Amino acid sequence: MAETYVHSAGAQEDVEKRDSTVLDQPQMKLITGGLILTALFAVFLFATQEPMQPVLLLIGLLLGYTLFHARFGFTSAFRRFMAVGNGKAIRSHMVMLAAAVTLFAPILAFGISFFDVEVSGYVAPLGVSVVLGAFLFGIGMQLGGGCASGTLFAVGGGRTVMFVTLLFFIVGSVIGAAHLPFWTEEMPSTQPISLAESTGLGYGGAWLVSIILFALIAWITLVIERKRNAPALAPVPSTNGFKRILRGSWPLFAAAIGLAGLNALTLMTRGEPWGITSAFALWGSKAASFAGMDVASWGYWQGESAAALEASIFSDATTILNFGVIIGAFLASAAGGLFKFTSINGKNVAAAVIGGLFMGYGARLAFGCNIGAYFGGIASFSLHGYLWAVMALLGTFFALFLRPLFGLSVPKSKDTFC
């Protein structure tokens, strides 16, 4: 018997439209095939790569499963807040960040790791590159239909147009990598600023300041929501007991804590927080090199980065996490009976091309995306994460005027979101 299924506030827009009414029976053939391929891939990694790689594959799979079942979005969260003032998903971000800094603080302070790797957070400079890059990313994710994590989990769920977004995300990342030295060396910027290490607060003081900031932001969203009489999110029907864990849907706030925990596991496993877009630059640069371009001469691929360009992509930790996210989302969508390739048209393909290019280019300039800069940066106590969030919100607001040109909807005050 089919079950009613309404998506949460974090859902990516077109995924919501496609499967917001009925949760079908599990697609067992897809689940079985996915599990077999995952097991074979894990065995391959175990046999050919460092021991951490199959662990990262599992973490990525859990990230993808969580993202899909909670429809934990950044794109839709920013859009709904900027369009009509609904801040529920933004508040779930604050829960996620609060849990993340609580876990990251002792890990970074004491260098806790599983594979005897050096642990460090994502702390980057503040400058023109972050301002412009995050602004472009904010526009791009609203046109492309998903952020970096949203692109991966939508691909895993079968949303066809997101394959176009992903392709041009990679192209934009390569162009951004080629141009990055100009933006970082020629344009004004500060040194990296950490609330913990650059201010004298230490990790305990930085944690307290962060928690206060998150609470303040959550309170501001509530004030704006009430002032604008923002439309409510529809309740999310779900299954009961263990079936809910396997098939969804999951509450946003539970997913927020789960994502924070998985990011902390990533930090302890590979020595860095969860990231996504550096792998796109790597994939695209390898393809460009194969086509005859001298990408090894670019400033982006000098120093320690040069080894990654020469090595197998399967030795790249971010690549393995990305594959895991896609696989996890695929398994989650099949468990809900929701995997299905969707139709495309000229307008949404054009939006995907532009959105992907903007996100790829913007992520390189801004030292990361919604995961590496916003989630990972703020969790690492880096001020650039806060600057990224402000500029991505501004980019989102600008994109609200562009979306109708591509036939994309903009939330209205009379809508009830589901």
Taking all Cα atoms into account, the compactness measure Rg is 20 Å
Q: What is the spatial order of strands in the main beta sheet?
A: 1-2
Q: Percent of residues in helical segments?
A: 55-70%
Q: Give the overall form.
A: globular
Count of domains: 1
- How would you characterize the largest beta sheet? 2 strands, antiparallel
- Helix-strand pattern: EHEHHHHHHHHHHHHHHHH
**Quaternary organisation:** single chain
Measured by DSSP, the beta-strand proportion falls in under 5%
Average pLDDT over all residues? 91
The number of helical elements comes to 17
- Total strand segments: 2
Query: Which structural category do the helix and sheet elements fall into?
Result: mainly alpha
Straight-line distance between termini: 22 Å
User: pLDDT under 50 segments (min length 5)?
Assistant: 1-22
Q: Quick summary of this structure?
A:
This protein is mainly α and 418 residues long.
Could you characterize the architecture of this molecule?
Belongs to the TsuA/YedE (TC 9.B.102) family. The chain has one domain (3-406). Helices cover 64% and strands 1% of the residues. The chain has 17 helices and two strands. Residues 1-22 have low confidence and may be disordered.
